[in-house]
Amino acid sequence: MSSTGSILSRRPFGPRAFVGAHTALVTPFLNGAVAWDDLKKLVEFQINEGIDGLVAVGTTGESPTLDYDEHIEVIRKTVEFSAGRVPVMAGTGSNATTEALDLTKRADEVGADAFLLVAPYYNKPSQEGLFRHFALLAESTAKPIILYSIPGRCGIEITVETTLRLRQKYPNIIGIKEAGGQVEKAARLVREADPEFIVLSGDDSLTLPFAEVGGQGIISVASNLIPGPVARLAKLARMQQFAEAKLLHDKLAEIFKTLFVEPNPVPVKHCMVRAGIIQSDEVRLPLCEMSEANRLLVEKVADATLASLR
Known about the structure:
Order of helices and strands: HEEEHEHEHEHEHHEHEHEHHHH
CATH class: Alpha Beta
Structural class: alpha/beta
Number of strands: 10
Low-confidence stretches: 1-6
Mean pLDDT: 95
CATH topology: TIM Barrel
Strand order of the largest sheet: 9-8-7-6-5-4-1-10
Largest sheet: 8 strands, parallel
Helix content: 40-55%
């Protein structure tokens, strides 16, 4: 299937397609280059296991160390490989508004269904600067936008007030990935935004607590390794089947925590190689392999988790 054909044949996904569990895909490397065969295999694995959607070139996809052409090509290939079966959200944020606009335009051209736009990092704009940044991006496309607030990496959060202001003016800003670890902030967003606004957890361990206050899913790291269980947890929580969801959450809690003993995506890539999902756990500097102690810990927890799910 040609890339042009696959793009033209894709149906548009409505906002409700972005609830549930979406995998923040790793970008597989082999000998320093993007491993396209592994990416295709990973996309198939995710869809076959029942994931609700895919995120290409988020932080987990090592967006800071992909060059510009690689960034767009990973999005294009993810769109091609998914073939319209699930929505593909493209990470196109930047701390330069002009760069974010260009990335969003090019991702739109290669068929992304929606855009995940992180708060500008390092330059720490004011909330008014954030509003103007996201306003220009929202005006540049008719496709859905998910804001991404992760103050631990960006040095600034997208506040509830700024989120609501953006939502009220730009209906294509359909939700937010909230990765600041604040359940109360998620609760405020659910209470104060309109009922169609989607609040997604950015932390696997908070999928269930977010759902208990009205959150509607997760953009997950762990689902690179265990997409089926993560998708099931998100569905149970969204359906308010909290007793069953808690039993599953308890099985997954340790792996959710342990995948972050070193910088993401180093641990999850290592686990994916051991599970036969990708060929290499290569990451690009300044990321590097785990310490021996952490490697042994991650392997022990991953093995125990996978055994508990059989």
